[in-house]
Amino acid sequence: MSTEGLSRRHLIGASGSAAVAGIVVGAAGTGALAPRGNTVTRGDDAPAAGAPGSTTPALALDAAIPFRGVHQAGIVTPAQDRLHFVALDVVTKDAAQLRELLKAWTRAAERMTAGAEAAPGGLVGGGPNRAPEDTGEAYGLPASGLTITIGYGPSLFDDRFGLASRKPVALEELPAFAGDQLDPKRSGGDLCLQACANDPQVAVHAVRNLVRLGFGIVAVRWSQLGFGRTSSTSTAQATPRNMFGFKDGTNNVKAEQLEDLAQHVWVAKDDETGGGAWMAGGSYLVARRIRMHIEVWDRTPLQEQEDIIGRDKKEGAPLGQAKEFDTLDFAKKGPDGETAIPVNAHVRLAHASQLGGVRILRRGYNFTDGSDGVGHLDAGLFFLAYMRDPGRQFVPMQRALAKADVLNEYIEHNGSAVFACPPGLADGEYWGQALFA
Ligand SMILES: C=CC1=C(C)c2cc3[nH]c(cc4nc(cc5[nH]c(cc1n2)c(C)c5CCC(=O)O)C(CCC(=O)O)=C4C)c(C)c3C=C
Ligand SMILES: [Fe+2]
Fold this sequence. Notes:
Blueprint: E1 82-90, H1 95-113, E2 147-152, E3 191-197, H2 200-213, E4 218-226, E5 228-229, H3 258-264, E6 283-292, H4 294-297, H5 302-309, H6 346-349, E7 361-362, E8 365-371, E9 377-387, H7 394-404, E10 411-421, H8 433-436
Antiparallel strand pairs: 1-3, 1-4, 2-3, 5-8, 6-9, 6-10, 7-9, 8-9
Helix pairs in contact: 1-2
The structure holds the ligand C=CC1=C(C)c2cc3[nH]c(cc4nc(cc5[nH]c(cc1n2)c(C)c5CCC(=O)O)C(CCC(=O)O)=C4C)c(C)c3C=C and fe (ii) ion.
């Protein structure tokens, strides 16, 4: 492995076709960190879980997820419980500076996802007279399943960095949708970094250290914390619940469904709108900050809640069926002679059968950001979805929802952004290398 101070020593666990591999940090004469305790940690030199000499079984939640691979981690890898998402603007006009930053980010991201400090000896190794190269708040914590996923916004492809000819057709700003209440301070961005982990401190540490490395080159435009996943991206995961108390992610595209991923999530080399070779194996990310008026929802009768979603609250089964994963039957009638799943239920409007076969991979998070200043919690869903072409997938889906979804009475979209997330990196490659080639 090319990155100084890191070595692949063993694999921890695997789940279905979405293998969760662990990387531990080698001590190999670099002064870099070595694994500790029962899994990958930033700290001392006891053997990691599952490693020779360890008596402790690996804990999947603490394990490291490989940074490199065909696709970026953080898309179909099992959704972790915590999120720190940041959108950034590039403030330099110098393309070479931006490229160097992307290289430095690659090194630091690879280290942090393996459970190491952002730089070798980052905590105190620089001595008393220099600012430490790692901010320290994750020192001693395990890798915690950290994934860091990068995306490029449409504005990165303007005339500043010579990238205009590289802009994919699919990377268009989203159109306005009926009911949008978008705040420009929570929208857009030249770049994004999505850090997901099973420990919030690890996710926040990752973003903070990458932002720190970018001082003078990038500036934070907006950022969002998420405290609980609202989607499953693997059949091995239980379906979590959103802030309306409903299971969310049941009928998501999952890591094990390789044909669906190829059809709906990964950009193919010959996709007309995809962007060509530099985006092949990548995916487009749509982010929407959706405020949920939970106080109003909480006064809504159960039957009405279930009719709005189209599934029952306890089991998560489609209305008219018994079990969570039963097939939705949109023709089935209830005792009143009406369809069991109402014509304007959320799951009917968003279902592939109503949208010419379109699907997306959802990977969103619950948030609660204090109060709205007038007596309510500012809570909601930070909707994240990956797809092959937003114009052909998210746009028609959101148009259908914006037009008829009864859920609209309870929600408000107040932030929006779209990003091109390039494919994963092979050994020795760095973020931006293919884009700038
Ligand atoms: C444009 C895409 C979507 C937005 C925006 C969206 C917002 C949103 N969704 C829920 C709650 C649920 N959504 C569910 C299913 C579901 N939602 C979308 C798309 C968007 N949702 C899709 C494609 C689907 C799957 C439809 C299907 O194929 O069956 C569900 C049911 C469980 C599930 O299958 O995931 C819930 C619950 C909220 C609260 C919300 C905005 C705040
Ligand atoms: Fe939904």
